[in-house]
Design brief:
By secondary structure, the chain is mostly beta strands. The protein has helices at about 5-15, 20, 55, 75-85, 220-225, 370-375, 480-485; strands at about 35-45, 65-70, 90-95, 105-110, 115-125, 140-150, 155-165, 170-175, 185-200, 205, 210, 225-245, 245-265, 265-270, 275, 285-300, 310-320, 330-340, 350-360, 370, 405, 410-420, 425-440, 460-470, 475-480. A hairpin with a 2-residue loop joins strand 24 and strand 25 (about 475-480). The N and C termini lie far apart (about 135 Å). The strands form four sheets. It has a 16-stranded antiparallel sheet that branches. A four-stranded mixed sheet has the order 2-1-4-3. A three-stranded antiparallel sheet has the order 10-14-15, with no helix packed on it. The protein contains seven helices and 25 strands.
């Protein structure tokens, strides 16, 4: 019997299992993982001829064998932190293939820079070249020399000095960022100063000074001004800890001895339209200052030498007490906020600065806030030595003319910086800058009893500076109007 073809086809279709029954369903398509994570096989440091490998590795927050995300923001933070050490001109981080699939090597490629730096230079004449030098006019010179990467270990050693006929100073500082392999830093230092302080102006009234040599080279000045001569020396020890790449805390203890060599028995000065006694803010004879300091720093600058963008915030508190073994009880607080904004186009930027400080209690004179530190129109102090007895010009005609130093100080300014040229490797860049600001000084009693005789009793004045900065292989140097005021008569 013949079976129709259509019936055979129908039976085959019925008997054969469905496609869905014989073939498994394809697995669901998963979304691709946006994070590319590998295992860290090793760290390869390149380009470091002087700096030891472990100095670079200790900055990197990555462990061998741990997962490494190529988009981890800590990679960029580590790069900026290495640049912030000041040991390198450039730092590049990259990933290379490891020994096996899924493993990588982190490559740190650095270009080293000179770490022996001239950080500060002071040179001038205390009365200016055109000023009267018969009473204490003095030529002074000072500098700070640092090796920030001693023998490639990351340790820094710094020395500062000031030399003149009238004043001398020396300070040494040693800093180890990771003491004995711990995350804590160690800082130790010592200093000695042969110092003098001038109080008031030429209108002071001075009672007999003991001892005074009228025939000595500085005897007439001690009669003409309220002058205190003293020795000051001591040392400090401190530690610090990085909370993260941008934030750091520091604590230190300083003990110093102050020996007053000569001072007036009493003195007074004219302040505005009245005569007031002078507070020398120093104990007679030999005294001790015992100070505990706590500091905090937030630093996100792109370059610590010549910054174009970023922010720097520092807070510091100094507490001195008889309970710590000293003879002075006071508290000093300081706060600094600086913001850099890179402007579009060619290399130029704006920097804004706000500084405020207060020294409350029985603070010695050298712990107070000086016009020389806040104004660019008079030579700045160095090693806390007042190198020039002149006061800044009183451009606004306010009561600040009566204040050399005070318990309260503040400054706000804006600086514009622009690139002039990049000549060669020795002089990496030449920048110009213009800075304009306001500064203020005041004692606490001036809020209830302002200085009389001034149309503007608020002790505030203008300050400005203009000049050039050179980024060189041995440091950043500045030549400006403020640099030259030690050579001109104000």
């Amino acid at each position: 019997m013949r079976v129709p073809v259509w019936l055979v086809l129908a039976l085959c279709l019925v008997a054969s299992p469905s496609r869905a029954q014989t073939e498994p369903e394809p697995p669901p398509v998963s979304e691709p993982d946006p994070e590319l994570v590998f295992l860290l096989d090793g760290i390869d440091v390149r380009g470091n001829d002087r700096t030891a490998d472990h100095v670079i590795r200790r900055v990197l927050p990555f462990e061998i064998g741990a997962p490494l995300d190529v988009d981890d923001e800590r990679l960029e933070q580590a790069r900026w932190q290495l640049l912030g050490t000041g040991f390198f001109d450039s730092v590049e981080l990259s990933i290379e293939r490891g020994r096996e699939r899924g493993r990588v090597v982190l490559v740190v490629d650095v270009r080293e820079r000179n770490t022996v730096l001239l950080e500060e230079i002071a040179l001038g004449v205390s009365e200016g070249l055109n000023g009267e030098r018969s009473y204490g006019g003095d030529i002074y010179v000072g500098s700070t020399l640092s090796e920030t990467n001693l023998f490639g270990t990351g340790t820094s050693l710094q020395g500062s000095f000031v030399l003149s006929m009238l004043q001398q100073g020396l300070r040494l500082r040693f800093h180890e960022p990771r003491f004995a392999g711990t995350p804590f830093a160690l800082t130790i230092g010592a200093f000695f100063l042969n110092a003098r302080e001038v109080y008031g102006d030429e209108d002071v009234l001075v009672t007999p000074i003991a001892p005074v040599d009228p025939e000595g080279p500085f005897g007439p000045e001690e009669v003409r001004y309220a002058l205190v001569r003293y020795h000051r020396g001591g040392g400090w020890i401190g530690t610090g800890l990085s909370l993260d790449p941008e934030n750091r805390i520091n604590v230190s203890y300083q003990l110093e001895v102050v020996d007053v060599l000569s001072r007036p028995d009493a003195a007074s000065e004219r302040r505005g339209s009245e005569i007031v006694p002078i507070d020398f803010a120093l104990h007679d004879g030999t005294s001790f200052v015992s100070t505990l300091t706590l500091g905090f720093a937030h630093d996100e600058r792109d370059d610590p030498g010549l910054t174009r963008r970023g922010r720097l915030i520092t807070l510091r508190g100094d507490l001195a007490s008889r309970l710590l073994g000293g003879d002075y009880d006071f508290f000093r607080a300081q706060a600094l906020w600086r913001e850099w904004i890179a402007l579009p186009g060619w290399e130029h930027s704006l920097r804004t600065t706000l500084f405020v400080g207060a020294a409350l209690g029985d603070a010695p004179v050298f712990y107070r806030f000086y016009a020389a530190d806040l104004s660019d129109l008079v030579p700045s102090r160095m090693l806390e030595l007042n190198l020039d007895r002149r006061t800044p010009p009183n451009l606004l005609g306010t009561a600040i003319a009566e204040l050399r130093f005070a318990q309260l100080g503040a400054r706000v300014d804006v600086e514009y910086t622009f690139l002039i040229v990049r000549p060669n490797d020795a002089v990496r860049a030449l920048f110009g800058f213009v800075d304009v600001g306001l500064y203020a000084l005041a004692d606490t009693d001036m809020f209830t009893r302002p200085i009389p005789g001034y149309p503007i009793s608020v002790p505030i004045d203008l300050t400005f500076d203009v000049g050039i900065r050179l980024d060189t292989s041995v440091g950043v140097f500045q030549l400006a109007f403020s640099t030259l005021v030690g050579f001109v008569s104000l």
